[in-house]
Structures are given as structure tokens and as C-alpha cells.
What we know:
The complex is a heterodimer. Helices cover 49% and strands 15% of the residues of chain A. Chain A is of the alpha+beta class.
Amino acid sequence: MSNFISSxxxxxxxxxxxxxxxxxxxxxxxxxxxxEANERNxxxxxxxxxxxxxxxxxxxMIIFKPIIFIIYLFVRITAKLVNTIYFxxxxxxxxxxxxxxxxxxxANRFIRVLEDDLPSNATLPDFYLGSYTQALYMATHKAKFLxxxxxxxxxxxxxxxxxxxxxxxKFNSILKxxxxxxxxxxxxxxxxxxxANSLNVTKFPFLGLLALTRSTTMSPDGxxxxxxxxxxxxxxxGGIKDDVDSDALIENKFVKKMSKYGxxxxxxxxxxxxSFFNQVMLKQQDLNYQKSLEQDRLKKKQKEAEKxxxxxxxYKLDYFKNLNPENIEDKARIxxxxxxxxxxxxxxxxxxxxxxxxxxxxxYTNGYFDKTFENISNAERFEGFEPFFKFKLMSPLPPKxxxxxxxxxxxxxxxxxxxxxxxxxxxxxxxxxxx
Amino acid sequence: xxxITPIKGFINTPVTxxxxxxxxxxxxxxxxxQIKYLFTLSIDPLILEYNQFxxxxxxxxxxxxxxxxxxxxxxxxHFKNLERFYGSQKYLSLILILSIYNGVVTFLxxxxxxxxxxxxxxxxxxxxxLNGYTYxxxxxxxIVPGPIGILSSLYICxxxxxPISYQFKILLSNPFKNNQENHSNSKELxxxxxxxIHILYTLLLFNNGFKSFVPSLIxxxxxxxxxxxxxxxxxxxxxxxxxxxxxxxPFKILNNIINLIRRRFNGYQSINQxxxxxxxxxxSNEREEIVDDMRNNESEIRAETPVRPLASQFLDTFRTxxx
Lengths: 435, 323
């Protein structure tokens, strides 16, 4: 068996080598010639392969391509159908709109639609620009009357309430009151739709009046007022007939209710304002308390710092007392002019920081050199301690450099040419702002 | 019991109420008198041989099986929302327009579609020089009776105009596994508050196989045309008010006519009575509102009072109330 296979392969190899021989006979560099189909061997492997390939192409054209096309068409149509039936595009668009549009935009769009229907001589009331939640916040926290107008242009009587009431001069005069606001919404807006559901609206268009109300109940301790809650006082829903007098309707429905609930609402408004004022007062008191607490804390801190400063000075006193001018090789001779006109001269090592000058002046002005103290402190105590001085040391010659600027950097005396090798400094007391 | 629709019962939705009542009555009558055959529509024997073209008008009037009845009723009930949205008169006009369009288009598609399929068959046979062509009936031959097309169109209106209040996701994969990776969309089901209607409609769509699928598709197509304002005459046309009133309140109109005739024979009558009749409608409206408010208050009170155990409920019955 294996022999047979190997002989087969051998023969095929041979034929290939024959071919290569024939091609090598042609001019070098020429294109390799196509092996000619031998008339004698019509059904060789290559031709069979070619026919099969063609047959497969035809089968593919006739059977597979249409099947794939049909499946593709079917899937596309099904997808389209599913999208239509379950409103997926619509839904996605709604989500996109919700995320990108703010309530003010929605309110503006609603008002724009209304303005299109507006007759030329009428004026549109100022609709609240914002979401219903914001309008409701105004109504509950500022105790205002809130008119709610819900409509949609698709409705059969969408213009009736609008033409009869909303743009009538009487209604507009009601809305002139700063304590009355009106909010409008289109029914395709989810917020208005939910509002309509919660207000149990059964017909559109809808105009309702909301306000804070409370009832008084009798209890053993006397009459008790319930906490105010928002409620629907009066509503108009559905179309209004043409023969209805709109002014009388407004008078009967809205003006009456507003005059009935107005005083109570005014009380609630005052109470709300009072509670708001109380809150502000409380906050103010709290703020004042915090402030005084902070001041106390600061004072305490300052005292502690002063105490530490004193200890520091005493600690430093020894250093200056032991400072022998003859031992210093590189020294700065610095003259210091006190505010009372007295002038002192001191030698400092040129490598010591400018802090030492300040410390010395402080020690001198405090008169510590004449006294003796028991030095109890050690260097560890003053690690990280920044001594502070309530005076300025300045060079009297122009440019008038203030030595305090070099304090935070602990500049070495040698680096400052106006005090090294010698210089004059005058003391200027800093006005104590806290005192 | 949670409320299915935002409107309680049939308050201010007379059209839906009448549609539901009439559909039920017709369905019952059809069953009692065994006249279901009057409402079926099929092209081959009924139209082609017997020329019963009146079936185009009747086939949408009644359903003839129980599951269809149930599904259509629940959908009509949900579409109360649409009546509120459009207003009763416009809603009735819309239903009529959609029924006319659906009836005609369904009939055309059924007959022409069947013809086209037969023609294609004939064409193929003749081009390949094969004999043996015979006329055959296709899936378009007969459809299930009932307002399936109208409901499909209304369903599109519902989805377009009634906004979505909330949505929720049902994860089909383990949420705690691969938490960092974003969940692919295919592994979660995004549903909205309209999902019950989607489910009901899907059931209706496949309830009778192709017999309900074909009219549903046509209805969906007409609904799409309507919502994109491509259906001629559908936006502005309104049913005349008198016809609307007859549909809404047939007994009242009958009563009025009888009264009118009686008045003719009885001679004089005081004017007040006539005016009273006119005002009755508005008064009933007002009364409805008051009843509505009362119901509201009741539900609020129920919501505000804490749950009381049975014993205290008994005791409260015998306690004299302070007010």
C-alpha cells in the first residue's frame, strides 16, 4: 500500500520535473508558460479541478448566495419589525433627548408651540421656565399659587382652554400677582404625563390650580392645624363650549378659590418666611459663635507662642553671652540703631544666619543681658520652631533693604553685602494689627 | 389592587366604554345565534365565487374566539389613555378612519397578494415550459376576524404619543460575575412601563398564526403612516357631533326623540324642563368631578392612616369619634 502511494507521488514529482525542464528550455527571464491542456489526457487532475471549481461557483450562485440573501433579508425585516413593534428607535431617541435636553429647553419649546397659535392682539402669560418639579418647589417653599396647563396639539379641543382662558386679559391680570405662577407642559413629555396621572386628569386640555392648603382639626388641646400640603384646588378639563363666558368661568372657578384660599396661603407664606428667617438667624448665631471660638483659639495659640519665644530667647542668651569676639575669625560688625536713638555695635560670626541678629536685638531690647535666668531648655525643644519678631530691621542706605525678607530663608550674614563685613541697621516697630 | 391604567374605570372615556360594551354584546350574540360565518373573510370561496363584498365591512366588527376577545378587550381598555389624549370625538373618528383604511387595505393586499403569488407561480412555470399550473390559495387567503388592524394602528399611536415613565433592566447573566466588564446588550432585557401592552400585543400578533399576523402588519403600517402624518384625511377629519352623540349615548337620544314626540301630542310644556334637559349633561359632569374628588380623598386618607391591627379596627368601630 505504502509502496503504491510512494510510486504515485514519485510519478507526480516526475511530471513536475518534466514541466520544469520544458520551461527551462525557453529563454531565461520569460514568463513561465501555462501547461497546455493535453488533448490526449483530457481528464487529468487539473481539468477536473477546474470543472469542479466552476460547478461549485454555479452552485454557490444558484443556491448559497440566494439563501444567504434571503436569510439576510429575513433578519433585516425581522429586526425592523421588532424595532417597530417595541418602539426601540423611538425609545432610544427619547432617552437621548432626555439626557441632552434640560427642562428649560422643554419649557421653551412648549411656549414656542403656544406662541405659534397666538392671535396677534393677545399676550401670552409668563410661563414658568423650568421643570414641574422646580415650579412645585416654588409653590411649596414660597407658598405660591401654581397654575398647571397640560395640553397637546393632537387633542381635539387643544386650543379651547388656551383661547378662552389662558390668553384672556382677566386671566393675565391674575398672573400679574408675583405670588401666582403658571407652568405648562406638553403631554408627550413624561413629566407632564405623570403629573396628569397623579392629578387624575381624565380629559385634556387641562388647567388646574394648585396651592398649599391645610385643614384645622379639633383635638383635646384645641384646634390643631395640619402641616400644609400641596393640593389641587380647582380644575378645568376638556374643551370649553363656545358659548361659555370665559370671564365668568375664571371668576367662578379661579378667582373664587383664590380668594378663599388666599388668606390661609398668606399665613403659610408668612410662617414659611419666619421659619426661613429663624433659620438664617440660627445660622448667623452659629457663625458668630464659631468666629469667637476661633478667636479664642488664636489667642491661646499666640500666648503659647510667646511663652515659647521667651524660652527660646533665654536659651539663646547663653550663646550670645558666651560669644567671644576674639575667637571669631570671619566676623560682621553690625551697628544697630534703636528707636530711642541709642546705638549698639555687635560682632556676629559671618556664617551665622540673620536670625541671630534679630534674636540679639530682641534680647537687648528686652534687657535680658542684665539679668540671669535659669536655662532649662535644650535645643530639641525648639526643633521646627520659627521665632517671630515684632520689629523690622532695615538698612538706612538706599536701597532700603528689609532684613525681615531674609528671615524665612535663614540667609547667612556673609551673603548680605549691606551688613557684611560691616553695616548699619535701624529698627522699626511693626504696628501690631491685633492690638 | 394596583391601577392598570391611569384612568379609573371609564371616567370620561365614553368611546372606549361603548366599544367594549358593543364588542362584548356582538361577540355574545354571534355565539348565541351561531353566526360566526358572517364575520369571516377569505378571498377564495367567499369573494371570488359568492361575491360577498359586504364582508369587508363586517370582518372587523367581531372576534370569534375567546383568546382574541380577551386580548382585544384588554388592549381596548389600555387604549383609554389614547382617548384621553385625543379627546373622545377625535378618538372615535380615528377608530373609524383606521377601520376603513384597514378594511380596504387588508382586502386589497389579500386579493392582490394572492393574485401576485399565483401569477409568479404561473410565470415561473411558463418560462420553464412546465405544465400543471393550477390556482391555489396562499397564506393571504383568509384572515381572522376582529379589530386586529385597528388595534395595531392604535398601538403605534400609543407607543408614539404616550411617554415612557420609567424603564428597567432584567439582567440575563450573573450580575456578580465579571463585574468590571460592561454587560453586553444581548445579556439584558430593557423594559419600559409599556411592557404589558407590548406583551399583550405580541400575543395578539401571533394568536392565529399568519391569519392574525397579516392584518396586524397592515395595521402597524397604517399606524406608522398615521403617526408620520401620511394618511390622507386622518388628521383633520372629525365625526359630526350628532353621530358622535348617538354613538356615545344612544338611549338618551332615543329618549329625547320619544319626549319630543310626546310633547307634540301633549301640547304645552314649561320652558324650564327643556333647559333642565340641556343642563343635565353638565351637571352630571360636575357630579362626576365631585365623586372623583371624594374618591381621591378616600384613597388619600387610606394612604395616610397607619395600618391598624384587626383588634383596634374592631375597637375603633365602637369608639366615639371626637369630631
